[in-house]
Amino acid sequence: MSLGTNQMTGTTGAVFRPNVWAAEAQTARQSNLVLANLVKRYDRDIRSSGQTVEVPNISNLTANAKVANTQVTLNAPTESKTTITINQHYESSILIEDFLEAQAAFDLAGEYTKKTGYAIAEKIDNTIAVGMTSGFTTTVGTFGTALNDATILSAINKLDTAKVPGDGRNFVVTPQGKMELLSIDKYVRYDAIGVGGDQNSIRNGQIGEIYGVPTFMSQNLVVTAGTPTQNNHLMFHTDAYALAMQRDMKFENQRKAEYIGDLYVCSALWGGAVIRADHGVLVKS
Predict the structure, then answer these.
(1) Exposed/middle/buried for residue 244 (C-beta within 10 Å: 0-12, 13-18, 19+)
(2) What is the pLDDT of residues 245-263, one digit of tens each?
(3) pTM over 0.85, yes/no
């Protein structure tokens, strides 16, 4: 005899099935924040007051042949300046009502306050990436063509030709760029770039150096989707871009009685500019 269709199921007995919450929340992944630590900083100059930082440029001088019984030939260059405008004012805020805070099984204020700080840091990193991408006039490589040894050497040559110091150079690539680099034999082999042992440039997929240039991966570089997708990698000297943090990240909280909750705010004020365009190369792939 058939039992029919009156079985007790997970649906009919749902009232007996508790929802068990994990002791640890799953936090959203964060991008690598590298650029702010690789550029020239003018924080101290603008800390007390001011709306711009004026950076004077000093030209090279000319060597002139000395003719007997004549005076020397004077150098009198007309100098210029680079202006860094402090115009980037951003905030990231949350308001947690008492109702939620009282019943939440997590430290919401602690977790989300960290996220407000990350939001500002990511914005700073992205601002630098956008500024460099639009401000560097020297380019190598082709969109849609993977990074290769010749392209990297060409970028290095551009910096050498511009008399850019060897120390202080950096190479920052997109995730796609990292994958392309890992397919280059010379990049993976430590003996091809002059380091070995504990200094091997590729360990567990981490990026180290290529031809003596420290190499990083950042998800904040400018990538334009399309056919082909345009990856804008950056090879530059520290002096290529200047960052001036007038107000570093500031965390504040305030009781908001009208919302019966607590407000948490992180804010920062800064400016940035390319100050040596010839000290950077836009590397396309």
Answers:
(1) buried
(2) 999 999 999 999 999 999 9
(3) no
